[in-house]
């Protein structure tokens, strides 16, 4: 139930949440004996919004000796008080009959607004990225980030090599310097060799600021691909031709 309530964009594209634990319990032997760890972080849900730290781990069919070792590790961690309160509210939210009607209504309204906003921002992020030149991105679904693929020309590869950077790092640094928009190059996420990506987030608030950032980023992206669409040799030839014409 905690996971189902936390998947922030589960209804954005009609996706359905499937529980590994529930699936295992319905399977015949020996498959229902599979060891399973389920982990949850409040920073990746509506309560933490990628800032508050806290979470839990549930084990299913786990060997007792393994659990004893995990218990030893747990004893050395100290969770921040704010994280403990947030995690408790996530697992055990206000309920009718236990808390006041006003408390329950306030909690549910705030949760709904956060989830609705995350959904709108996921759609906005997906739409902007897929309208950009030489950028392709899968729908942002159940996450707070987008991982977009870049199609880069040979001119970009040459310029990046000259600056001692990977092509996607060069792209991200240019974006940061020219727009103030921070993205993360895909080479830090184990991307397939020969491909280039960048990661961006949907967490920017207010939503108008995210809209403004994507407008700046879209203009930069168009400029970038136009600026480096030719190799250095092609740019030199083009420049020489212009000189001859002017003469």
Commentary on this structure:
The chain has 247 residues and is α+β, with helices and mostly antiparallel strands. It contains nine helices and six strands. Helix 6 packs across helix 7. The protein is globular.
- Stretches where pLDDT falls below 50 for ≥5 residues? 237-247
Strand content: 5-15%
Main sheet summary: 4 strands, antiparallel
Instruction: Note the total helix count.
Output: 9
Number of strand elements: 6
Oligomeric description of these chains: single chain
Cα gyration radius (Å): 24 Å
Helix content: 40-55%
Anisotropy-based shape:
globular
Structural class: alpha+beta
Give the termini distance in whole angstroms: 75 Å
From the structure above, extract its key features.
four-stranded antiparallel sheet, 6 strands, alpha+beta, two-stranded antiparallel sheet, disordered C terminus, 247 residues
């Amino acid at each position: 139930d905690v996971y189902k309530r936390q998947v922030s964009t589960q209804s954005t594209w009609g996706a359905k949440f499937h529980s590994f634990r529930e699936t295992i319990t319905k399977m015949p032997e020996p498959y229902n004996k599979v060891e399973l760890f389920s982990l949850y972080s409040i920073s990746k849900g509506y309560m933490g919004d990628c800032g508050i730290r806290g979470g839990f781990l549930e084990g299913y069919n786990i060997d007792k000796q393994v659990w004893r070792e995990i218990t030893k590790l747990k004893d050395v961690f100290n969770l921040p008080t704010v994280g403990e309160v947030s995690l408790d509210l996530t697992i055990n939210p206000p309920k009718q009959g236990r808390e006041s009607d006003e408390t329950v209504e306030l909690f549910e309204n705030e949760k709904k607004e956060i989830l609705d906003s995350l959904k709108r921002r996921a759609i906005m992020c997906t739409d902007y990225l897929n309208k950009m030149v030489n950028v392709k991105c899968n729908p942002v679904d159940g996450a707070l980030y987008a991982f977009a693929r870049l199609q880069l020309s040979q001119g970009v590869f040459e310029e990046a090599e000259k600056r001692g950077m990977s092509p996607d790092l060069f792209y991200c640094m240019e974006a940061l310097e020219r727009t103030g928009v921070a993205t993360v190059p895909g080479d830090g996420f184990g991307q397939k060799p020969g491909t280039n990506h960048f990661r961006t987030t949907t967490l920017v608030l207010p939503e108008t600021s995210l809209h403004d950032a994507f407008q700046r980023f879209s203009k930069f992206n168009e400029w970038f691909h136009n600026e480096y669409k030719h190799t250095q040799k092609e740019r030199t030839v083009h420049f020489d031709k212009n000189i001859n014409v002017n003469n």
